[in-house]
């Protein structure tokens, strides 16, 4: 998703959302007294900014904490530590009443269009609910506004009185988008917005998100596991592994010169829809430049010491086992947390 | 549908195409049959709402040592086809969930549809095996992984438990499960998603099947694990020389594995041919749509995606004529007297060496080639 003028990555841009040292641990309790015996360290120290008008893509494998991150920045979960600032205002520990005005500006699109819509409510009720909850009467009445929103996302406004089961998966996802846009939010957090959809429908929804951003000047945080979708929609991309951001940079540098070995392995693992590439790769030895990672992602209950990726990394040395690499900018705008980065400037 | 619809719901035995001299698409009956030769397969399910034509006249062939990728969106009939080849549908005339199946499935010189069910049962698991999509629901949660692999082996081989267990450990080791002699006694829930999928593959391979059907084998997995599984399937095929059918909606996965590709839409094949041809010179507007819908990881993409408008058809009320017609951007291009209710048959694409590339479209081949090279390809 391209924005007309790429804001220069300077200090002048005031970030819309500023996250610092964000931590979320889910306690594991045991026994009658519910004594805490451990914690799932779902998110463990995230620091990033979201600039107005941009799309930040967050990518990672299942269990890396990307969805928890989405629920933390929308304040659907209470952070264990760290701060979240929205438009310069600290919203980390605001209560329900304190969050209410901010909910107008921060909305969420959910992954599963089947479970995120109440089957007993009509589309009109679902898309109109934000107005009711916020006590707002839009110009021309709720019904008229809901019909305008349905039209905006490419649904027939006449379908106001229909129920979710009367719609296909792609149409339901559009209903979810209409609901998220009802209050004219500034920031939309989308958690796997297209992963439940078929390829041809997925492209329709991606294009819709793209158009809406241009039209309404939205800022997106898009969470997805699909690296091809992320490449298509994002301006900047954060790669997560076991609760940490391992690399954060703009789209072009991430795909052209990934610096973290995990990013490199992740990119190389994506099957490319080009049958010739495999044969060319096989001819020159190896499986088309693919880096095969050993084993599975370790458990976030007891993450590895030092760099969390060292158990699967082919470049790991003693320092990786002992010291956690900080996320630092090795090139302008290219942050990476690694002791032995790839494509490092000489 | 406003068009005069052909009477579709035929009670009684499933309607076979009249005048099926030889085969409309599967090659003529005189040629020696391929290792797997599916001819005019139709699988219909009667429901309260009408007859669901999940597969409606599908023909293809597969030789040993080759991989066929079946691509399509949900509801295009891919999985129903694979279950049909395995003979896993409940067949019957009446009652719910009973499938009505017609057509021929020639496997290793035997016709499976008319064969004795007991004989097919003996072949299933031994000569042809299947890797299911969701290993958690395909495995029994009450039995250890080892017990399930041992059972699959002992059903077809008269060996004692000890030998079968050794075989199970060997297979788990082969598919890359660490400490297989210990993990063989684990229950499915103790395995991670990728390991369960590996165990499923081990179970499917325990009898060295010559035909392996993998139905969305990597859909539930992360990319790094997916890459491991795809490599494993490719290695095992090279080792055993089996015929593999891989069913997926992910064009990247088929491009990695398949020699040939069959694109399904609305229960029928709209295009099939060698992978290189289907990707680099596709001859059907639906294939163009799939390629245009797909964000590419290997290219910097500034253009918008080119989605297919509308949604996939209901299989109860498949559009008459070409099923893709309501969504096709070229439906209005005049096609020399052919009306919308005419169904295009699969026809060979001229000029392709080997004559394996087929497409079912009313557009003339010149027109299709022109649209692809001038309008579609530059935007991808």
TrEMBL record, chain A:
One of its GO terms (molecular function) is ATP binding. Gene3D superfamilies: P-loop containing nucleotide triphosphate hydrolases (3.40.50.300). Keywords: ATP-binding, Nucleotide-binding, Transport. It comes from the Bacteria. The keyword Plastid does not apply. It holds the Pfam family oligo_HPY. GO terms for biological process: peptide transport; transmembrane transport. Residues 17-267 form the ABC transporter domain. The keyword Lipoprotein does not apply. CDD domains: ABC_NikE_OppD_transporters (cd03257). PANTHER family: D,D-DIPEPTIDE TRANSPORT ATP-BINDING PROTEIN DDPF-RELATED (PTHR43776:SF7), TRANSPORT ATP-BINDING PROTEIN (PTHR43776). Belongs to the ABC transporter superfamily. This is Peptide/nickel transport system ATP-binding protein. It comes from Streptomyces olivoverticillatus. The lineage of its organism: Bacteria, Bacillati, Actinomycetota, Actinomycetes, Kitasatosporales.
Automatic annotation (TrEMBL), chain B:
GO terms for biological process: peptide transport. One of its GO terms (cellular component) is plasma membrane. Gene3D superfamilies: P-loop containing nucleotide triphosphate hydrolases. It is a peripheral membrane protein. InterPro entries: AAA+_ATPase, ABC_Ni/Peptide_Import, ABC_transporter-like_ATP-bd, ABC_transporter-like_CS, Oligopep_ABC_C, P-loop_NTPase. The keyword Transport applies. Residues 1-28 are annotated as: Disordered. It is found in: Cell membrane. Residues 38-291 form the ABC transporter domain. Keywords: ATP-binding, Cell membrane, Membrane, Nucleotide-binding, Transport. GO terms for molecular function: ATP binding; ATP hydrolysis activity. SUPFAM superfamilies: P-loop containing nucleoside triphosphate hydrolases (SSF52540). PANTHER family: DIPEPTIDE TRANSPORT ATP-BINDING PROTEIN DPPD (PTHR43297:SF2), OLIGOPEPTIDE TRANSPORT ATP-BINDING PROTEIN APPD (PTHR43297). Belongs to the ABC transporter superfamily. NCBIfam families: oligo_HPY. This is Peptide/nickel transport system ATP-binding protein. It comes from Streptomyces olivoverticillatus.
């Amino acid at each position: 998703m391209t924005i007309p003028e790429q804001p220069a990555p300077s200090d002048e841009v005031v970030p819309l959302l500023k996250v610092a040292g964000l931590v979320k641990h889910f306690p594991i309790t045991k026994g009658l007294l519910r004594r805490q015996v451990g914690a799932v360290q779902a998110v463990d120290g995230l620091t990033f900014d979201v600039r107005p008008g941009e799309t930040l893509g967050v990518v990672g494998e299942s269990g890396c904490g990307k969805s928890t991150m989405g629920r933390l920045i929308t304040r659907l979960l209470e952070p264990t530590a760290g701060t979240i600032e929205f438009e310069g205002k600290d919203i980390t520990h605001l209560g329900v009443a304190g969050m209410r005005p901010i909910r107008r500006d921060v909305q969420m699109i959910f992954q599963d269009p089947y479970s995120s819509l109440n089957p007993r409510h009509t589309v009109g009720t679902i898309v109109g609910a934000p107005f009711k909850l916020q006590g707002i009467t839009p110009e021309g009445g709720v019904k008229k506004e809901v019909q305008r929103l349905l039209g905006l996302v490419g649904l027939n406004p006449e379908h106001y009185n229909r129920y979710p089961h009367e719609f296909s998966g792609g149409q339901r996802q559009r209903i979810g988008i209409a609901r998220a846009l009802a209050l004219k939010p500034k920031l939309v957090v989308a958690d796997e917005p297209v992963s439940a959809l078929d390829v041809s429908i997925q492209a329709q929804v991606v294009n819709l998100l793209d158009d809406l951003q241009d039209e309404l000047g939205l800022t997106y945080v898009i969470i997805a596991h699909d690296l091809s979708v992320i490449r298509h929609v994002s301006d900047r991309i954060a790669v997560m592994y076991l609760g940490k951001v391992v690399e954060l940079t703009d789209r072009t540098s991430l795909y052209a010169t990934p610096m973290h070995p995990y990013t490199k392995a992740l990119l190389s693992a994506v099957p490319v829809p080009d049958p010739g590439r495999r044969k060319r790769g096989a001819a020159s030895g190896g499986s088309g430049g693919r880096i095969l990672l050993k084993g599975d992602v370790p458990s976030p209950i007891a993450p590895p010491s030092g760099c969390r990726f060292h158990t699967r990394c082919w470049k790991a040395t003693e320092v990786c086992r002992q010291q956690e690499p900080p996320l630092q900018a090795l090139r302008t705008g290219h942050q990476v947390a690694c002791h032995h980065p790839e494509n490092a400037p000489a | 549908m406003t068009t005069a619809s052909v009477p579709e719901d035929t009670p009684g035995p499933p309607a076979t195409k009249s005048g099926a001299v030889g085969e409309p698409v599967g090659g003529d009956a005189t040629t020696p049959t391929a290792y797997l030769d599916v001819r005019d397969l139709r699988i219909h399910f009667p429901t309260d709402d009408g007859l669901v034509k999940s597969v409606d006249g599908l023909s293809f062939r597969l030789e040993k040592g080759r991989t066929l990728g079946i691509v399509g969106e949900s509801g295009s009939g891919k999985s129903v086809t694979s279950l049909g080849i395995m003979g896993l549908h409940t067949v019957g005339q009446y009652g719910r969930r009973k499938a009505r199946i017609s057509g021929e499935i020639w496997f290793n010189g035997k016709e499976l549809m008319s064969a004795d069910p007991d004989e097919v049962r003996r072949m299933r698991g031994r000569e042809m095996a299947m890797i299911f999509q969701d290993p958690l629901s395909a495995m029994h949660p009450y039995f250890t992984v080892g017990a399930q692999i041992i059972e699959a082996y002992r059903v077809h081989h008269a060996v004692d438990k000890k030998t079968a267990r050794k075989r199970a450990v060997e297979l788990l080791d082969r598919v890359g499960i660490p400490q297989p002699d210990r993990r063989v006694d684990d229950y499915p829930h103790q395995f991670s998603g990728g390991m369960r999928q590996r165990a499923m593959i081990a179970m499917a391979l325990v009898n060295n099947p010559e035909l392996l059907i993998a139905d969305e084998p990597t859909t539930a997995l992360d990319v790094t694990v997916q890459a491991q599984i795809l490599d494993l399937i490719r290695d095992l095929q090279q080792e055993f020389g089996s015929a593999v059918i891989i069913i997926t909606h992910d064009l990247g996965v088929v491009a990695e594995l398949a020699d040939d590709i069959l694109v399904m839409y609305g229960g029928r094949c709209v295009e099939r041919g060698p992978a290189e041809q289907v990707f680099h010179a596709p001859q059907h507007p639906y294939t163009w749509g799939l390629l245009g819908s797909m964000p590419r990881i290997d290219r910097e993409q500034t253009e918008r995606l080119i989605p297919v408008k509308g949604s996939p058809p209901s299989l109860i009320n498949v559009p008459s004529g070409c099923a893709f017609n309501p969504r096709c951007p070229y439906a209005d291009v005049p096609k020399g007297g052919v009306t919308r209710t005419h169904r295009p048959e699969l026809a060979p694409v001229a000029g392709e060496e080997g004559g394996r590339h087929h497409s079912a479209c009313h557009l003339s081949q010149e027109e299709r080639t022109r649209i692809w090279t001038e309008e579609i390809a530059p935007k991808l």
